Amino acid sequence: QTVVTQEPSFSVSPGGTVTLTCGLSSGSVSTSYFPSWYQQTPGQPPRTLIYSTNTRSSGVPDRFSGSILGNKAALTITGAQADDESDYYCVLYMGSGILVFGGGTKLTVL
Amino acid sequence: QVTLKESGPVLVKPTETLTLTCTVSGFSLSNARMGVSWIRQPPGKALEWLAHIFSNDEKSYSTSLKSRLTISKDTSKSQVVLTMTNMDPVDTATYYCARISEWKYYFDYWGQGTLVTVSS
Question: From the CA of A11, how many Å to the nearest CA of chain B?
Fold first, then answer.
């Protein structure tokens, strides 16, 4: 079974830019996988950030952006803020109605 | 205002069957292009998609859990029900329901989740 891969952890300085990625154990991610991104803080349900590769969900600030970089989906946060410190998950559509979450990236802002 | 709320037992015994209900409001389960998914998260671990059901009753299941899961809906009650058979302690998790876009395959609204513990 194909695994969706994410960096386990990442660190960014306040005001800095960070790019988190979402790949496949076999193959390349394209827009046909409808990549979406979710932010989760402890004890809370996930919050939807990005869908269909690069569409921001309602109310999400424009410092969050999505793209395809090389063979992976990417989430870029520009001007990182302290409250961006969260877990970030990507989801890919594998076809035939199947969705798979990545293992998540724990982002530290310091 | 779209809301989803999970309900079900907080504790189940190993080998028992878990039944969870997601009650939705602010949209109809007969709305085209929308459905409801179940997602779970073991303590300290990653999210895992389990299943979804769409307005036309089309259903999909996680490949690894397909044999244990059944999803159904009662449109008149605005409820989606997930059953998971043969529960094991590794199934201890917070179970979320979320609204899913049928054409773009993303979750736009989430419930608060319900923690289910599997223990004898």
Answer: 19
